[in-house]
Amino acid sequence: MDSRNGGGPVTTIGKRQSDLKKSFKLAVRSLLTTCPAQEFSKAFPKFSSVEQEHLHQLFIQIITSLHGNIEDEFESLCNETQVGDALDTVEQLVEEQSLDPLSSERTNVMDAVHNFSAAKKAEIHYLRGLLERAEEHNRLIQARVDLLRNKTQEVPDIKDVIGKVVERWNFKLQGNTKCGALNGLQLVWLAKCTSDCSD
């Protein structure tokens, strides 16, 4: 993570990056340790004590140089692969999540909310379909009821009309003897109308 201070960038090492470097140095030092002069002398018993001391000094210089070279190589490799930046990003994300105690649960909660919402939408869609079918069924039944109601109202109206016509004809027949010749034709016509209406 780079922070600007004045004119130039100042690189600050994050805790994870620092821990990685410390751990590597400890591992290298534990693998490449110097041994005491007495132990070193036992490894070279045929050499004189002066030669053993020179060898021991040379061994210490080699180990120290190896430590430096390995640490430099590790540092160079970390810079090339940008391990430090990756660790700093991880550290920043961990800090953000630790500041927000619900962040770990938010994904699960949001998934549950999304699933619940999708299920409710599907249920609403299904119920709307049922409601539309029920409304259409009710409209058909209402239309049928209205049709039957109109037919039943028409039948008494026709019967009333026929009754009134019959009453008039009977009245005319009783009052006017000249209409007696038409009496049979009128009755035939009335019978035909009555049978047509009843059908």
TrEMBL record:
Pfam families: Nnf1
Alphabetic keyword roster: Cell cycle, Cell division, Centromere, Chromosome, Kinetochore, Mitosis, Nucleus
Full protein name: Uncharacterized protein
Nucleus found in the keyword field: yes
Stretches of the chain forming a coiled coil according to its record: none
Protein's cellular compartments: Chromosome, Centromere, Kinetochore; Nucleus
Transmembrane segments: none
Annotated Gene Ontology cellular component terms: MIS12/MIND type complex; nucleus
UniProt-listed GO biological process terms: cell division; chromosome segregation
